[in-house]
Amino acid sequence: MVKLSENGQYLLQPQGDVIALTSQALLDILSTSSWFKELPDYLITKIIELSTIKYHEDGDIIHYQGDASQGLYAVLSGSVKVSSISADGKECVFRYLSPGSWFGEIGMLDKSARTHDARTINKTMLLALSSKDVQTLLNMYPIFYKFLALLLCRVVRNAFTMLNDTTLLSVSARLAKRLISLADSYGEPHDKGILIGLYLTQDDMATIINATRQTINKRLVDWQKLGWIDAKYGKILIMNPEALKQLYMDE
């Protein structure tokens, strides 16, 4: 965990490998969020001044559901899975967070416990503001309450969209829509299309869209035969995004 150095670089040294991130590169990542870009310049400056960078290995727990809310975070690299697990071990995946995404705002507003688990997918860097630093920002600049509320509104809107999709769209349409969304957030150029840069099991996909693994398997096999996707070893290559989009646009 490090602060911004005088020469404008964050320096991390996990397992002997130094990773340098200039302040401009940091701002470029954070500015992929329209929410962050709408912040006043003085707030952006203070956030960067107070923040630290944390390095996580694949599978690290950032916080569990029910933990005390200890900070506000932004993903700089890698990914974070936000989910909850029932008493019988069934996982419900709420969302995957890509670079530029912020999370933790609920606990910063109501001071209550975490609503979900947050776990890293792949090696991940996070920008972190402690709850104390967030309170400092709120005391200095009360308008930050408005921006935290706007960040929360985005989460609520996303939740309503997921609820609507579950209620109104078929399984095929929900799966196609989520694959396109993941491709937009994590897509990597491939000579045959767009590779989703996440390891996704069929169980993962099933929990995301509230379906069974068997149903997911059937859809993926069918779409692979049609040449729309290629799914192997937890990686999904989108080869015909227009065909997938048509599935949910027609409903």
From TrEMBL:
<feature type="domain" description="HTH crp-type">
    <location>
        <begin position="169"/>
        <end position="242"/>
    </location>
</feature>
<dbReference type="InterPro" id="IPR012318">
    <property type="entry name" value="HTH_CRP"/>
</dbReference>
<dbReference type="Pfam" id="PF00027">
    <property type="entry name" value="cNMP_binding"/>
</dbReference>
<keyword id="KW-0238">DNA-binding</keyword>
<dbReference type="InterPro" id="IPR036390">
    <property type="entry name" value="WH_DNA-bd_sf"/>
</dbReference>
<keyword id="KW-0804">Transcription</keyword>
<dbReference type="GO" id="GO:0005829">
    <property type="term" value="C:cytosol"/>
</dbReference>
<dbReference type="InterPro" id="IPR018490">
    <property type="entry name" value="cNMP-bd_dom_sf"/>
</dbReference>
<dbReference type="GO" id="GO:0003700">
    <property type="term" value="F:DNA-binding transcription factor activity"/>
</dbReference>
<dbReference type="InterPro" id="IPR050397">
    <property type="entry name" value="Env_Response_Regulators"/>
</dbReference>
<dbReference type="InterPro" id="IPR000595">
    <property type="entry name" value="cNMP-bd_dom"/>
</dbReference>
<dbReference type="InterPro" id="IPR014710">
    <property type="entry name" value="RmlC-like_jellyroll"/>
</dbReference>
<dbReference type="Pfam" id="PF13545">
    <property type="entry name" value="HTH_Crp_2"/>
</dbReference>
<protein>
    <submittedName>
        <fullName>Crp/Fnr family transcriptional regulator</fullName>
    </submittedName>
</protein>
<feature type="domain" description="Cyclic nucleotide-binding">
    <location>
        <begin position="35"/>
        <end position="138"/>
    </location>
</feature>
<dbReference type="InterPro" id="IPR036388">
    <property type="entry name" value="WH-like_DNA-bd_sf"/>
</dbReference>
<dbReference type="GO" id="GO:0003677">
    <property type="term" value="F:DNA binding"/>
</dbReference>
<keyword id="KW-0805">Transcription regulation</keyword>
